[in-house]
Amino acid sequence: MKLTGINALITGGSQGLGKTIACRFAQAGANVAVCARDEKLLRQAREEIGRAAPAGARVAAHVCDVSNPQAVDQLIATAEKEIGPLQVLVNNAGIYGPMGPTEEVNFAEWTRALEINLYGALLPCRALIPAMKKAGRGKIIFISGGGATQPLPNLSAYAASKAAVVRLMETLAEELRPFHIDVNAVAPGALKTRLVQQVLDAGPEKVGAAFYAKNKKWAEDGATPLELGADLCVYLAAPESDGITGKLISAQWDPWPRLHEFRQELSGSDIYCLRRIVPEDRGKKF
Question: In the CATH scheme, what is the code of domain 7-189+225-275?
Answer without folding.
Answer: 3.40.50.720
